[in-house]
């Protein structure tokens, strides 16, 4: 369970980017965070994994307070927080397998990391996960030879190799075409259920948030404006979050039904 209480993030003397946010995410919930640029969506995710230092407040993951951790304790906690990035954050000159195994860096010795001598069980788990998302046949291919959707699937598997207790996705579809972005959202949705893993997704596309997540949290100027089911997210909520200014067209256009036969089947996206 993720428990955020009165989270504040301020840069210098400027107005806080996050203003006493409270949020609880539990079980295998898939929660989307929506809001205009600058609303604090990415900052909130980066506070959770301590890529950004919170100014004040509490962030607890399965009972562990993350805000005050330092050194080895912080490194151990970060192993349990998977992160999927908009820009993929792969090492292009390395193979898919090598990028995936980077998710185990927090668990192996420096020698193993430098020489890339990972335990056999890690290699076997990597193949299993890559097969699950349909990229096992790319194991020995360089990352820079893949398409955007394939690269993002590598990023997802790398995060899962950490054996995380929560998965954070920071605009995971923003760099992808519409069809591929829907495939990635379906993948995250199905993995949450299969692995009993809570997933928190920062996303601009409101239609995809409504179609592929079971809860929507809306931020505006660092404050929570909406927290509810997709079916309750209507024009009033949209106006409140975006200040009465129409969201970009791609954010509100209709998305395919969750029951569409196109997309993810077990074993392959």
UniProtKB/TrEMBL annotation:
InterPro entries: AAA+_ATPase, ABC_transporter-like_ATP-bd, ABC_transporter-like_CS, ABC_transpr_PhnC, MetN_ABC_transporter-like, P-loop_NTPase. Keywords: ATP-binding, Cell membrane, Membrane, Nucleotide-binding, Translocase, Transport. Residues 249-269 are annotated as: Disordered. GO terms for cellular component: plasma membrane. Residues 2-246 form the ABC transporter domain. SMART domains: AAA. It is found in: Cell inner membrane. This is Phosphonate ABC transporter ATP-binding protein.
